[in-house]
Give the backbone structure.
Amino acid sequence: MLKVIIAPIVGGVIGYITNDLAIKMLFRPRRAIYIGKFHVPFTPGLIPQQKKRIAASIGRVISQQLLNAETMRQTMLSPEVLDRIRTGLMGAAESFADDRRTVREVLGGYVGDERVAGYEKTLTEKGAAFLTDKLVQAHIGASIVETGVQTLRNSLGAAGAFLDEKLSASIRTAVGEKLDAAIRKNGPALLEKEIGHISESMLDKPACEIYAANREKLPGAVEKAAALYESVLAANMDKVLAAVDIEQIVVKKVSSFKAEQLEQMIFGIMKRELKAIVYLGAALGFVMGFINLLF
């Protein structure tokens, strides 16, 4: 009778110990052990030994299966996310409804006064250069001359006949080129001055006044911003993920974990399942011990 009781119990204890030991040997020892020059087998444990391969596998699974372009596109362009973006933009705009600080002070609070001044100078210079180029490309000088010649011809009446098309074309070309050259040379400085006045005026206005003047336009502006976000992200998600390289980020992060951290992470995720394996080993050992009594 004692044999009937002891055999299953011994089998259960052996099954419990062997499974528990096998799980521990996945993580320990954490470093290779040597006796002289002899490398002790199964050291370090399987997971510390294969950490780089495991990191590469995790990175590949996450980048290809969990955070691939299609999944990110569906998530980041979902109606819920777009609604949160709209709500966030409206909330940010409405927060300035009673803000008496100037726009310059508001921006300075985010990026610093020096950067605001630098951004203002850069935008003014680039804006002036851009507008100057557009004026020159539009041959504004020739247009001005054409208007002047036409006005002169009309004012002279019959005497204006001497301004035939050939002469008018010569005047347009000669004077127009001079005007375009003058615009190219003097335009940036003149436009910088005017743009500077406008930007200073805008930056020195209270934020609440800017909000009040544009309150009715806010919903449309928010919709345009959300549409811009949606179109840019939809068209460039593959490029964004390629630039970020999620796989390499995960590989580097997991590879940088110490053996203790990796053990804690895996146990934190699968503690209950690993315990179940130990108990299952005990149960199987108990059953096998009882079956051995039958033979």
Remarks:
- Residues 158-163 have pLDDT under 50 and may be disordered.
- Strands lie at 34-35, 38-39.
- The first helix runs from residue 2 to 27.
